[in-house]
Write a structure and sequence with these properties.
The chain is of the alpha/beta class. It has two domains: 5-155 and 201-302, Metallo-beta-lactamase, Chain A, CATH 3.60.15.10; 161-196, no CATH class. 27% of the residues lie in helices and 26% in strands. It is built from eleven helices and 16 strands. α10 packs parallel to α11 (278-285). The mean pLDDT is 95.
């Protein structure tokens, strides 16, 4: 059961690093597991700085094969090997991921201490991770690019033992049946689950859509998200450049977040030309108030409803 998700913005910059911003990567900490979204150059250093560790259960989701989103992977694998990681690493990305891995394995050698379980995904595929589901869709970029949604599964409603006792249900197996949605009989009287168990509780939903123009497919994926992280590193005055490079302005990201009825928006992939990100924040908040333009190492704590 989720105790929440910590969103750690490791690299919030665009295709070029700056003194203030590293290349794209976001870490989600959830129940001891690390979910890494993209792996720009220097990601392992950012992880060290953030104190994330290199031997915890980890999965990496790569959006697309442009260098600023994947060239940190060789260094990260090397660092994990040097630090004697012994847990398998799950890696997902678009078609071409396996070819990239084979290229880096030849000069660097396969990680000596742990297994990399890599899988190429087609947009629309889902990955069931037990307590949560990874859903995918096609973003609107100049090469195949995947937008990801990490969706926690519905949690059982809260069980009220005092109500069960009041209705005469003895503690033991009958309580378990009620918690699992089965009605029970006590002294000839039927006790239904909703008499003693609250309605199921929704889990958290986090969506990552980077290097994309505003897209209907992304809006659908982001519907009702607790947090939408969306490409939006260009100010409105540079919208023609955003269109040319298949990126979005902060205002466009805000319009999509509003249309998707997301609860919060984080504008990421900040262009190196954009020195004053307060312009982006101002333009986005005119459309969608619950917007932030995160800095590197900023952490956002998401909590599920009780």
């Amino acid at each position: 059961m989720s105790g929440g998700i910590d969103v750690v913005f490791l690299g919030t910059g665009g295709s070029l690093p700056t003194k203030e911003r590293g290349l794209p990567s976001v870490a989600l900490r959830r129940n001891g597991e690390l979910i890494l979204l993209d792996c720009g150059e220097g990601t392992q250093r950012q992880m060290m700085h953030a104190g994330l560790g290199f031997n915890r259960p980890t999965i990496i989701l790569i959006s697309h094969l442009h260098g600023d989103h994947i060239l940190g992977l060789p260094g990260l694998l090397q660092t994990m090997s040097s630090l004697a990681r012994d847990k398998p690493l799950d890696l997902y990305g678009p078609k071409g991921l396996m070819k990239f891995l084979n290229l880096i394995y030849k000069p660097l050698g396969y990680p000596a201490n742990f297994k990399v379980r890599a899988k190429e995904l087609s947009p629309g595929q889902e990955v069931d991770r037990g307590e949560y589901l990874i859903r995918t869709t096609l973003a609107k970029h100049d090469i195949p690019c995947i937008a990801y949604s990490i969706e926690e599964k519905e949690r059982p409603g809260r069980f009220h033992p005092e109500k069960a006792k009041r209705l005469g249900v003895p503690e033991g197996p009958l309580w378990g049946e009620l918690q699992h949605g089965k009605a029970v009989r006590v002294d000839g009287k039927e006790i239904r689950p909703n008499d003693v168990v609250d309605s199921p509780r929704s889990g958290l939903k986090v969506v990552y859509a980077i290097d994309t123009r505003p897209a209907e497919s992304v809006r659908r994926l982001a519907k009702g998200a607790d947090l939408l992280m969306h490409d939006g590193g260009f100010a409105e005055e540079r919208r023609p450049k955003a269109q040319e490079y298949y990126h979005s302005t902060a205002r466009e990201a805000a319009q999509l977040a509003k249309a998707a009825k997301a609860k919060r928006l984080a504008v990421v992939h900040i262009s190196a030309v954009t020195r004053d990100d307060s312009v982006l924040l101002r333009e986005a908040r005119k459309i969608f108030k619950q917007t932030l333009v995160p800095k590197d190492f900023q952490t956002l704590a998401l909590k599920p409803l009780k």
